[in-house]
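[job 4471] stage=fold_predict status=RUNNING
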Amino acid sequence: MKTSKIIIRKIGFLSAFILPALLVAGYYQGGIGYFYPLIFAFVCIPLMDYYVGEDRYNVPKELERILSTEQYYRLITHSWAYLQVILLVWACWAVAQDPGRPWYEWLGFTLSTGVVTGGIGITVAHELGHKNNRYDQWMAQLILMTVCYMHFFIEHNHGHHVHVATPKDPATARRGESFYRFWWRTVTGSFRSAWNIEKERLTKAGKPAWSAHNRMLWYMVLPLLYLAFLFGTVSLLVDRLAWEVIPFFFAQSIVAFSLLEVVNYVEHYGLQRRQLSNGRYERVRPIHSWNASHMISNFFLFQLQRHSDHHAYASRPYQILRHFDESPQLPAGYPTMILLALVPPLWFRVMDAKMDEWQRSYGAPPAAA
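[job 4471] inference complete, writing structure tokens
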């Protein structure tokens, strides 16, 4: 039984590659095909989540070390990193093939591309960015370069994980705050936070902030260099200046990192850690992140929805993340919750009631030792 569940997950994690396949197939079909990844992500996956339900199975402790080091799981994430770079070259070429297509078709193609590069791509970058080896971290930054959000590599690890569920964290949504208000606060606040973290690092090392040692400066330049590569390559392929590549690149980037931020909104909405008498906050526990163990969406998102375990134990790889019954549970998987977050009155009606339940149980949790 244990072995069969692990095998099912091994196969399930490959499902993420369905979305880029749909993007390519949909382009060549045309028409409604431009919306295939969008439809699959926000219609098909929620329906499958509903009918298949949750999977609360946790890998037995005696198998955790074996699965943690199994190269199969790294191969999946490594493959995605290179796929995303190549896929975006193809997408830019596709845009330049027939710029006269109806606007709604290009809208569908742009949104669908962002769902792939953000919904799956940034999820993979998030996983790789938590590894302690330079190759994985380099690939995380490579993916983030393709969506103009490289500062996430700094802010997420050294800002968000430190300050999550406190007022200091720009990526933690406050109760009563709509996603649209949160979006501007987190996009600008996360960038400022990353800049300050990098500046502090350089100051401690005795190096000036305005220098080649500042990763934030490189993080602003590298996406532009990648765009120049895309523009030049596609222009050569279509034998003209493919100007449409430029707005497409930035548009899919905005869609991609907006997906990241709506996921942040869902993951931490309203949850706060208790402030101790010394002014510090209690340690992060599984009760400080919203959790979802819906099987199908967790396959596609590499178990990111088991977010409570991730924040409590950030070094755990995706294949052994655990479900905790004591964690606050979302009523549905991320795809459904993202749609709900885009309609604030519905979001508040559902989630504020869930918040009331959480506060009754953990509104004043005991301070950590």
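[job 4471] summary: The chain is about 65% helix and 0% strand.
[job 4471] exit 0
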